[in-house]
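Lab notes, practical 5.
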Amino acid sequence: MKVPERNLKMEYKFTPPKYRYTFGPDQPVLSLKPGDTLTTETVDARGYDSKGNLIPDEMTQRSPETEFYRANPLVGPFYIEYANPGDVLVVQIEKINLNRNMAWSRIRPNFGSFTEEGPGRRLLLNKPLEERDFRWMLDLEKMVAILHLERSRLSKIEVPLCPFIGAIGVAPRYGRVETSLTPGEYGGNMDCIETKEGTVIYFPIFVRGAYLAFGDVHAVQGDGELCGSALDTTAEVTLKIDVIRGKMIDWPRFEDDDFIMVAGSSRPLMDAFKIAHVELIDWLVTDYGFERWEALQALTQVGTSRIGNVVDPNYTVVAKFPRKYLS
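Output from the prediction step:
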């Protein structure tokens, strides 16, 4: 996609006054214009900041009429001027600087890919999983995560860092408000490693102002986020914002140096797979001049796909087409 050039670009260093647990229209924390750059800090999925302090209640989304599931606190929403329904919001991830030397992950009794149980309910007869917390040390110079093992013949496991934004999205379609745990056509908690530094994300805009929100930075995550938690940590994030007017898309699209990609989110997993690939075929036809069935044939032979998550209220699949076949 061609992003138009803008004048009068502003760079904002933003300190969040409050964190939210929903994607949807709400009182904006800041208005941004196309071409602006935003730098801000996230907290981790439990609400702890870069110094290990829990954000106070007065800095969280609250209501006298309901309760919010307190996971994945989001920075935002940001109102994007000149962003209207039927346009595309462009978010370029310029930097994800991890700013804490520790990340956590956990196995929870009623959460993850091995159970259909969830917060406040028990749907199955199986014995709940054993609850375990895991603390990983982050070597930010070597860019590796280290887990010291106590119950294994190995002393430790060390893996390369791959920071990405777990939850990023806009206000959903049809006036809905969705929890910060849920992915959908608006983006949301997709938990896919493709939303990393250097990626450009294209979001469909369903609500005037878009209402961009994001958080839940992960230092590392394998396919599917199997146990329900990646390596959750904090970061300073820099995003560049733009708008493409009059070009409607239906699902979030990504691109980097190697691929154009689409994230589809639904249940069952096969529906997410189909959504991602149909939207990717549409992209090949509308922007790259493919005939539809030739696009399907090419994607069948050279495309790849990856499971973002199989633990959230919706599952996420990312369909990819190599850029080298677009020239």
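Observations recorded by the TA: The longest strand covers residues 88-98. The radius of gyration is 19 Å.
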